[in-house]
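Hi C.,

You asked whether I'd gotten around to modeling the 329-residue construct. I have! Everything is below, sequence then structure, no commentary in between.
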Amino acid sequence: MKRPVWNYAVAVNLMITTLILLLPGISLSDEPALKPQSALFATVGGIEITQQVLDDAVNRRVRTTLFHGQPPADKLAALRKEVSSDLIDRTLLTQEAIKRGLVPNQEKIQQSIGRMNDYMKQRGHEYSNADKQQAKDFLRQEDLISQLREKVQEVATPDSSEIETFYKNNPQLFTEPEQIRLSVILLKVAPSSTKDVWAAARKEAADLLIQLNKGADFAAQAKLRSTDPSAEKGGDMGYLHKGMLAQSVERVVDKLEVGQVTEPIMVLEGIAIFKLTGRMAAVLRSFNSVNQRASELYRKQLRITAWQALKKKLRQENPAEYHQLVTKD
């Protein structure tokens, strides 16, 4: 199978569209917004967050995650809780970045504004001065939080004993999953074929299965009849990890003993018969063979832990005072 080609231009447009939708006051959607409220939502770190800010943030999250109108009441409540938590965190993280003397990268922000200007113009939308200011405010905050994250996640290189302890505590991360070796005979049928064509293929597969059960050589039959690329190798597909097969096939193959064949199975390409020719048990790789990977995963865990610890610390030092009924964490 061919790997999907990453379209850079599409990726950039998607990123800019998402960013535009995240900005206050900017919408490319005709969906009705939630009714804004002007009351105070919360105070955190001496900063007041209005109900309107929360409502705007919820509206933007609805547009960027659901796309099909208003969500049900229960989902909206959960979304509101998630967004309110994000607002609190972003406020505290921005304050912390400023306290540490971090400064927004103005050149980077201006480049982002320029790209969004171009994007809006291409789609015939006006980008007002108020929109630009809101965009700049958002990007400044985003840049400060990004810089803070980089600082906080600058963890020291762990020593070998720490890495080995991580390896021992997380064997699932370093275990080669069970592998099975399969052979296949594929009778190709186009998905658009008539019922008669499919019926003929099923009959041919049923007759073939009878021959195999009577002792016919699977590899020889694969070379003779199979349309799968593995036919020239007697149908041998090699060793496969769990998850590489369609679930309908995997469920049947899992029940086989080595040497057994399946009943004919309908697959995307036609009708197939599989034979299990080998099974390798899951194996925990030695520490020496995964030392580098273990080090990378452990450092990743340390960075995540450091970031989460900072957010928890800021929350404890600056408890939010809620002025409206919003479910707290």
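If it helps when you're writing up: The two ends are 45 Å apart (CA to CA).

Thanks,
B.
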